[in-house]
C-alpha cells in the first residue's frame, strides 16, 4: 500500500518528464525536418540554375554554328571572327546537345522558364533553316533580332525566378551582332526565298524539343 501511495505521489512528476521528453523530441524532429526541407530546396534551386545555364550554353553554341554556316555559304554576312569552319554535322551535334540540356530544363524548370526557353529555341530553328539554305519566314537579320528578343525574355524570366534584380535598361539583352548586321548593305539571300512557316521536322529530332 505504501509503495502504491509513493508511486501515485511520483506519477505527476513522471508524467511531466514524459511529456517534456515527447515535447523536446517533437521540437527537434520538426526543426530537423524543416532544415532538411530547406537543404533539399536549396539543392533543387542550384540544380535548376545549373540546368538553365547548361541550356543557354548549348543553345548559344547552336546559334554560333548557324551564323558561321550562313557566313560560309555567303548569305550576306561575313563573320571571320567566328572560328573554326563548321559543317552540317557540327550543327546536328550541337542540336543534339541542346535537346539533351533541354530535358533538364523540363525536369527542373518552372512553367514560365520552360515556355520562354521553348520560344528561344523555336526562334533558333529558323536560323537552322537559313544556315542550311532552306526556306524561312524571315531574312537572316530579322531572324537574329527575333532570336535576340527570345533570348532576352528567357533571361528575364530566369532572373525573376531566382530573385535577381533586373536593371530594365534598354538593350540590356540585345545581341551585339544585331548592330553589325544592320550595317550590312544589300538584301540577305534569304530575303529572295518564298516565305512560309519554319518546319520543325526539317533537320531536327522528333518529339518534344
User: How many H/I helical runs?
Assistant: 5
Q: How far is the first residue's CA from the last residue's CA? A: 82 Å
What composes the largest sheet?
A: none
The chain-level mean pLDDT equals 77
Order of helices and strands: HHHHH
Q: Bin the helical content.
A: 55-70%
Shape designation: rod-shaped
Number-wise, the strands total 0
Instruction: Give the domain tally.
Output: 1
Percentage of β-strand residues: under 5%
Radius of gyration: 29 Å
As residue ranges, the low-confidence spans are 183-207
The secondary-structure class comes to: mainly alpha
Note down, in words, how this protein is organized:
This protein has 209 residues and is an all-alpha fold. It has one domain. The protein contains five helices and no strands. It has helices at residues 2-72, 88-108, 111-131, 140-162, 177-182. Helix 1 runs antiparallel to helix 2, helix 2 packs antiparallel against helix 3 and helix 3 (111-131) runs antiparallel to helix 4 (140-162). The radius of gyration is 29 Å and the shape is rod-shaped.
Amino acid at each position: 500500500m505504501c509503495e502504491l501511495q509513493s508511486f501515485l505521489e511520483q506519477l505527476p512528476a513522471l508524467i511531466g518528464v514524459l511529456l517534456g521528453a515527447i515535447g523536446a523530441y517533437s521540437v527537434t524532429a520538426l526543426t530537423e525536418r524543416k532544415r532538411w526541407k530547406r537543404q533539399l530546396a536549396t539543392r533543387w534551386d542550384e540544380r535548376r540554375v545549373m540546368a538553365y545555364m547548361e541550356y543557354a550554353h548549348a543553345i548559344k553554341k547552336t546559334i554560333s554554328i548557324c551564323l558561321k554556316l550562313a557566313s560560309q555559304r555567303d548569305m550576306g554576312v561575313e563573320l571571320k571572327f567566328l572560328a573554326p569552319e563548321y559543317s552540317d554535322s557540327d550543327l546536328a551535334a550541337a542540336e543534339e546537345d541542346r535537346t539533351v540540356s533541354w530535358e533538364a530544363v523540363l525536369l527542373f524548370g518552372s512553367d514560365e522558364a520552360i515556355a520562354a526557353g521553348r520560344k528561344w529555341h523555336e526562334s533558333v530553328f529558323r536560323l537552322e533553316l537559313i544556315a542550311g539554305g532552306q526556306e524561312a519566314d524571315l531574312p537572316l537579320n530579322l531572324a537574329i533580332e527575333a532570336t535576340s528578343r527570345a533570348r532576352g525574355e528567357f533571361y528575364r524570366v530566369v532572373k525573376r525566378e531566382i530573385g535577381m534584380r533586373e536593371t530594365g535598361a534598354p538593350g540590356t539583352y540585345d545581341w551585339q551582332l544585331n548592330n553589325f548586321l544592320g550595317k550590312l548593305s544589300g538584301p540577305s539571300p534569304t530575303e529572295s526565298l518564298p516565305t512560309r512557316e519554319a518546319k520543325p521536322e526539317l533537320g531536327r529530332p522528333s518529339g518534344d524539343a
